[in-house]
């Protein structure tokens, strides 16, 4: 069994955060997946 700890932060001052990247995944069939990462499309087998 795996345990996960989560914390609620009121502020995130002083942390260097990267810009968010949006992921979208589309399943064509069981063997083919198309993934959009930002503005780049990737084909996964």
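Sequence proposed for the structure above (45 residues):
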């Amino acid at each position: 069994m795996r345990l996960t700890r989560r914390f609620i932060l009121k502020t995130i001052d002083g942390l260097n955060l990267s810009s968010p990247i949006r992921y979208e995944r589309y399943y064509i069939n069981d063997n083919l997946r198309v993934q959009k990462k930002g503005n780049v499309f990737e084909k996964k087998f």
